[in-house]
Amino acid sequence: MAEDILGRCRAIVGDAHVITDEATMAPFMADWRGRYSGRGLAVVLPSDTAQVAAIVAACAAARVPIVPQGGRTGLVMGSVPDTSGAAIVLSLRRLNRIRAIDPLNRTMTVEAGCILADVQAAAGEAGMLYPLSLAAEGSCTIGGNLSTNAGGTAVLRYGNTRELCLGLEVVNAQGEVWDGLRGLRKDNTGYALRELFIGAEGTLGVITAAVLKLYPAPRAALTALVALDSPRQAVELLGLLQARCGAALTGFELMSAFCLDLVAAQFPDLPRPFADRHPQYALVELSSNESDAHAHGLLESSIGEALEAGVARDAVVATSNKQALDLWRLREHIPLAQAAAGKNIKHDISLAVSRIPGFIARADAALQQAFPGCQPVTFGHLGDGNLHYNVAPPAGESHEAFLGHQAAVNRIVHDLVADCGGSISAEHGIGMLKREELARYKSPVELGMMRAIKAALDPLGIMNPGKIL
Ligand code: FAD
User: Fold this and answer.
1) Which atom of ligand 1 is nearest to the CA of 202?
2) Cα separation, 345 vs 408, whole angstroms
3) Which CATH code for domain 220-340?
4) What is the pTM (predicted TM-score) of this model?
5) Fewest CB atoms less than 10 Å from the CB: which of 65, 183, 345, 372?
6) CATH class name, domain 348-424
7) How far is ligand 1, taken at its centre, from the CA of residue 256, in Å?
8) CATH 3.30.465.10 residue spans of the chain
9) pLDDT tens, position by position, for the chain (469 residues)?
């Protein structure tokens, strides 16, 4: 039976694009964080939508599970198979064409395997902006971004990937092609099918192409780092900047002092913008379609007002592109510094912005009581209510040993998130990693509706089984 389906795949995509030897398959089976590796029957690399449809139809006929895979940068073990060895990994990497750019409609139509950075560059060459931006942009694909509804650093202004998509082309679980590549901003013709496939983590069908929204490229972008007393002050500063700068405020990231200590220890060459150590920092980005001088004036007057009102302690505004990049590098190096220091217990949560200071205070206190000396590594897209609330062991203790407390730490953090009306997965999705947590925190009504959708669209259960549900 395995030979039968592999023969069909070879007939569809050619021998060279069906990988079955263990060594070549290994990278496709491994989770990005290197904490998990699955097993698969084969890795199949189709080159166009028709080939994807034929592969899915063959798998449906043979009841062979399919794991769609893009750049494999997902952080919840969604794009790798389980250990049964029964599934085919369907890599979309060869579907990497930019099909069209429509400057007047401000859209581009791209295939699912396009790398995000290539899509940004193509938009830039056309004089426009595709605003999705995240640290994995050199490797992640549009299909993966859509399937995880990725967020990133510009959600405050432009929204998540869901808000950046106007149309999809999907191969459903029966191997039929749904051409929903409409670049329409208004289309009230029944159920919003597009929305079902976005964020579905490959459990309902395979996304093969998408129509993405483009924006005018900003004429000026400014970055500032603001030193703060507390998360409460960060939320107040966010409110002040939103009131003064409106849609020009494109980024607002929170970083605790401990995060910057970690970065300084692991990357001593990166600049330290302040002589003093402050409890919290906000990285602020302003984009404007007006002149540089206008953007400078707006940012400086707003931050000046915040300093006068006691909503900030100190601030540096970047005066060159290099300085701005250096400030962003501080933020982007936090995950790298964490990884270099040792594994953490990670959480990707969201809350109403107003509830974040209370949540941090309660979570810090509860963790100190349960694990005295443990070190929260708190940073994230505060403007979107999204925190990466990670927990490192007490200084000098083994990171590996501390991972043994993962279940207890998760329970403290996620129970508090639920109590504050938040979400246990803001950006990264559920995959296999948070499946049990999802079952714990979603209501039976919500889970029941999700199962009904899955059963209706994938009755054979072949699309990325064991993920989400
Ligand atoms: P993969 O990892 O290959 O797949 C992810 C999921 O999508 C899997 O369930 C897979 O089955 C499914 N899938 C992939 N392609 C398709 C398709 N064509 N059709 C159907 N299903 C498909 N996320 C954020 O939201 N914000 C961030 O700021 C952010 N920063 C990150 C930084 C780093 C360094 C890393 C490693 C990850 C980060 N992520 C972030 C995680 C993020 O989800 C991914 O980087 C990205 O969106 C996934 O794209 P991918 O192509 O790698 O997908």
Assistant:
1) 21
2) 10
3) 3.30.70.2190
4) 0.95
5) 372
6) alpha beta
7) 26
8) 98-216
9) 678 999 999 999 999 999 999 999 999 999 988 889 999 999 999 999 999 999 999 999 999 999 999 999 999 999 999 999 999 999 999 999 999 999 999 999 999 999 999 999 999 999 999 999 998 999 999 999 999 999 988 999 999 999 999 999 999 999 999 999 999 999 999 999 999 999 999 999 999 999 999 999 999 999 999 999 999 999 999 999 999 999 999 999 999 999 999 999 999 999 999 999 999 999 999 998 888 888 899 999 999 999 999 999 999 999 999 999 999 999 999 989 998 999 999 999 999 999 999 999 999 999 999 999 999 999 999 999 999 999 999 999 999 999 999 999 999 999 999 999 999 999 999 999 999 999 999 999 999 999 999 999 999 999 999 999 9
Mutate to test the pocket of ligand 1, among 141, 148, 469 (most ligand atoms within 8 A of CB): 148
Task: Quote the tokens at residue 314.
Answer: 């100190």
In the chain, which segments carry CATH 3.30.43.10? Answer: 2-91
CATH of 2-91, one of 3.40.50.720, 1.10.357.10, 3.30.43.10, 3.40.50.2300: 3.30.43.10
**Contact call for residues 58 and 415 (beta carbons, < 8 A):** no
- Rounded to two decimals, the ipTM of the complex is 0.99
Residue ranges of the chain that CATH labels 3.30.70.2740? 348-424
CA 32 to ligand 1 centroid distance, Å: 10
Question: Phi and psi dihedrals of 293, rounded to 5?
Answer: -65, -40
Tell me how far the alpha carbon of residue 41 lies from the centroid of ligand 1, in angstroms: 22
Strands 88-91 and 42-44 turn out to be parallel
Task: Ligand 1: list residues with CB < 6 Å.
Answer: 32, 67-75, 78-79, 92, 112, 134-136, 140-141, 143-145, 147-148, 150-152, 201-202, 206-207, 335, 427-428, 431, 464, 467
Q: Which of 226, 239, 218 is nearest to 300 (CA)?
A: 226
**3-class DSSP assignment, residue 211:** strand
